[in-house]
Amino acid sequence: MESTNQERNYLADGNTVGSWLLTTDHKRIGVLYLFSILFFFVIAAAAAALMRLELLTPQGDLVLSDTYNKLFTIHGVLMVWFFLIPSIPAVLGNFIVPLMIGARDVAFPKLNLLSWYLFLLGGCFAVHAIIIGGVDTGWTFYTPYSSAYSNSHVVEMALGIFIAGFGSILTGLNFIITIQKMRAPGLTWFRLPLFIWSMFATSVILVLATPVLAITLALMCVERLWGVGIFNPKLGGDPVLFQHLFWFYSHPAVYIMILPGMGVVSEVITCFSRKKIFGYRFVAFSSVAIAVIGFLVWGHHMFVSSQSLYAGMVFSILSFLVAIPSAIKVFNWTATLYRGSISFATPMLYILGFIGLFTVGGLTGLFLAALAVDVHVHGTYFVIAHFHYIMVGGMVTAFMGGLHYWWPKITGRLYPEKWGQLSALILFIGFNLTFFPQFILGYLGMPRRVYEYAPEFQVYNVLSTAGAGILGVGYLLPLVYLLWSLRYGKRADANPWHATGLEWKTSSPPPKHNFTETPVVTEDAYHYPPLDEKGEGHA
Amino acid sequence: MPEQKSIVAEQFDTAEQQSEAAHLGMWTFLATEVLFFGGLFLAYLVYRHFYFDAFAAASRHTDVLFGTMNSIILLTSSLTMALAVFSAAENYRRSVTRWLSLTLLLGAAFLVVKGFEYHKDIAGHLVPGPTFDPALPSQAQIFFWLYWTMTGLHALHLLIGLALLTVMFFLARRGTFSANYHTPLTLAGLYWHFVDIVWLFLFPLLYLVQRHL
User: Fold this and answer.
1) In chain B, how many domains are there?
2) ipTM
């Protein structure tokens, strides 16, 4: 079991259930999160599959309005709070952040474990709410429908999100302190890998935005339980206040769901083009800029919610401004590729897909930030397509890329490369086939959140459903071959990609305390020398 | 208890790094608390602006005597808390427990006074809903809805603070804290002061503003 002079790797350090459930090792907690979010992803994806099947035909034949409302609520709630928000931060972030900065663990390992339990407890409430009948408010819980009229299990679902939210807050807090206080000697802010900058910006949002969601949902529940409150216009309450509070969290939350993905892109793109990132400081500060400006744009969700025209104009301008740091990133990644020694390994394919899909999502975001255009496409499939290009085309693709990139580090095994490349390709094709027709549908006027539609929209809906099938294969394949690789994959050495970064300086999988001795950093990130004749890099 | 037990957790290199991390962690947590209460303060601001007269009428029904008493009690408790931390830093171990027990007492006194006040409020039909005092304008219900949620949430935080200080009291009695190591006590103190500061905003907003109108 134990090699002679080395600490056992973290996977071998205890095989009992208790050693996993009571672990404070950030790597094991990352793995626990991976399996938990996979569980929620499967339920939420099944809900999406049912919706796409229903939308094959214009009339309601598979499900009717009531069930359909519950399906999109399940899909939204689980995907946002129980898959996307914890995806890169809690899985890859937990695993990689301490390794990347040369620390033995996060600053507060017990709080880290508590985060997972809070997440799981919140998830139990959410799943229970679904089993006993579901919720039909949509993931946005707009009042007064949610607080006075809906006959579904709103309180229980909100409670689940409330509890899981505290898990998110603690994760964010842990990362902020860890990154501030636990960096290895010599690892100054401007030597940090850009994934760390992204995670730091994400954590600031997690910590400052999530409490507002918590109080908002709590107030909505109190109003529902006691029959009086501040969001119901019957008493003089203002439902728009709910929307302001909700989007004050939920718009920054969109950046929780994209910034970590951008961090993964910076890691992967430098490694597989063997080049230093172009414009390190611009990419680093654009993460901070996105986090800051992201707090000031929430009103663009409310252009048609009786918000004043002047407020609308300010929110519109600010929303345009977010495009600048996002574009800086895309340009800098592209410039990094220029004259690089590019290899199309699986993580790189995913990440190149990310850049294309994120660009489409970002540009259509500009349409929606424009006041007049938004009035035309508000509440249509155009919006659905836009944010799926960011959330799925962007974040999920980046998550897949990151998962493949760090898979050898996490498991000590290599995945089968050809299958990986094929899956990345299938994902890209399936995604575009699913969501591009929805831009057209939305522009033509098909509203979101409906189970039946005018017959002239059918051809696009059929295309979309067919795409969803392909997309499903793109998710299933990696699930199969990644699990297969746990047993049959080739063993990975410490640094299979010849990458820079401290996480590659320790063995795969890393020992329990990450490094046998604390590394000292003497150079900038992404110091990639050119490849030699055999195609090998010497980092 | 052995006095110089190892107090540095395995993920830290030095006691100093550990203490800095813990302090920063507490301040970050307090920042989340500010945002948590922030939603309520925003709601107060919006409705005070919408329903100025109803809020003025409603605020005359809160009990300014109880409120003032509680403000004095809580401010004093912050002083005794600060003295407890100071005593630990100066190695006056006996006074640490003394100041802590006084802080606990004052915190409990706040809750007792608040309990009497709640009792009076209920008797005075100030709970929003069907039993609400019909003499008040209907939007005064929004004021009292906020009053109950804000003071209730504050009382909950105070209760958590009391639990935290009870733990600190027993730790102090075992002689855990010294001039070299009193981070948990300092952090509990920070939390306690935060709860105090929230009250310092609630008191003028709910009891004082527009009382004279």
Assistant:
1) 1
2) 0.93
